[in-house]
Structures are given as structure tokens and as C-alpha cells.
Request: fold
Amino acid sequence: MSLMVTFNGQFKPYRRPPKNNDNVHRIRGMAPSFNDLIEHYVDKEVPDRPDKDSKDLPKEKIKEINQNKSKISSYAENQKTQKRKVYARDIMSTKIESLTSKHTVADGMKLLTKYEIHHLPIVNDNVLVGIVSDRLLLKLLADDKPTTTPLEQVMVKEVLVGQEHSSISDIARVMLEERIHCVPITTEDLELKGLVTSSDILELLVHSFPLEIYA
Reply:
């Protein structure tokens, strides 16, 4: 898994939480498996396959069975050709608004409001040093934190980051387990290249998922 945690400009490996995460298991238990979906949507529509005594079946029945087998073969072949692993570079946002650690809480709120975004990477000298979210800044304001407070005093410094070759399946799994909605994409030198958000992944799901289970 090509995901790392950066803290004060240093990388360290991302350690997945223990597998006994009740929330994750509960969600996984609710989700149908792909094989179950195929059986429900495809296999049950197919009559029993003819056995060795198929010559005794009416010609119309044999024709119907062969047509349905042909449809399933075409469907399976189509899925093989469409199947492709999706990486961070395929869906990440590259037009990124960012601030430095010397900017203030007021600067952060102004930028978040202006561009209607939810996350602001904090970048010093082209190096990612932290991140702030609208929820974090709103909480600070609710706690009467001065708007002149520098972002370096309030930003999240331990940031989970990925690389352009990180798979979206890994990123989505980490977002679920860590309960986060944004993963910055950086180079090995922590130069910010893009952002992958939960909205990006949902958009990918809506436009590319093979079965319309959400209809």
C-alpha cells in the first residue's frame, strides 16, 4: 500500500488500524459481494443448462438456453475489457488552493468560503507541512480562538498522504478506517501534486460502477 504519514516534513509508514474495527466490519457486512450481485442480476435469469440428454428438449428451449449463455459470455468478456485499476493520478484535483503556516485562521476561512472548498493544505517552500479543514476552523471560532492565530498553531501536522500511483481502493479504505475525507497526493519530497477527496471517489463510483445497485 503506497500510503504514508508525514509529520514535520518526515515520512513514516502508514499503519492500518487493527482489523477488529467494528464500524468497518459493520459496513462490510452490509455490502453485498460482487458474486452475490452477479448471481442475483445475471445467473438467476438463465434457465438450467442442458445436460447430456439435451437432445430430448424442444428446439425452442435449446435455442433460448444458448442465447442466454451467449449473453453471459458477452457480459463477462465486456467486464474483462473494462476492468482497470484506478490510481490517484486518475481522479485527483490538481488545481489546489493552499496557504502557508504563517497565514491566520481568518485567511483560512476567507479562502475556504471564497472557493467553497473543505480542505486547505499548508505548504511552506513547496513542502506540505500540514492541513486544515473547514470543520477545524469553525470549531476554533466556536471556541473563541482569535482569528489572528497563525495556522501553524492549529493545523493538523500528522497528515496521511499518498502518491500518484496509490490505488483508489487503498485510499478509499484508509478514508473509511481513519474517518477522513481528504488525502493529499505528494512526491517523495512532499511536494504537493494533488488532492483526492471523498467526493472524488463518490463521483468515480457513480460514473463507473458496473451494476446500478444505487438506483
Notes: The chain has a mean pLDDT of 77. The two ends are 32 Å apart (CA to CA). Residues 32-82 form one domain.
